[in-house]
Design a protein that fits this description.
The chain is an all-alpha fold and 108 residues long. It has a domain at 40-108. It is built from 5 helices and no strands. Helix 4 (56-72) runs antiparallel to helix 5. It is rod-shaped, with a radius of gyration of 22 Å. Keywords: Membrane, Transmembrane, Transmembrane helix. It is found in: Membrane. The chain crosses the membrane at residues 88-107. Belongs to the CD225/Dispanin family.
Length: 108
């Protein structure tokens, strides 16, 4: 919603050129997006540093950064697509890393 308002204001600068002699009152309204866009950028560095099995943690970090970039551009579908991939990669990395640690504990 906020992105649409920004695009509309920059696309039509006629309201900036109009100058009235009377002062105008302005009101700021904060509009929150209806769709919550989660971000898995906090889990990705953890998986990259501690359980980076087959570079899945690094790949998850990359997708998390792409998700953040798409959020800044206001691309909701791109954000959700990259974020779901990052979530899946983070989960797989964590599960495989924990299984590897448990397996080594039982073998040695």
């Amino acid at each position: 919603m906020l992105c649409e308002l920004l695009r509309r204001d920059t696309a039509n600068p006629k309201h900036l050129a109009r100058r009235d002699s009377a002062p105008t009152a302005t009101t700021m309204i904060n509009i929150r997006s209806k769709t919550a866009l989660p971000n898995h950028i906090a889990r990705s560095p953890f998986n990259t540093i501690f359980t980076n099995l087959c570079c899945l943690g690094f790949t998850a970090s990359t997708y998390s950064m792409k998700s953040t970039d798409q959020k800044m551009v206001c691309d909701v579908t791109g954000t959700q697509a990259y974020d779901s991939t990052a979530k899946c990669l983070n989960t797989c990395t964590l599960v495989l890393g924990l299984l590897l640690i448990i397996m080594f504990e039982f073998l040695f």
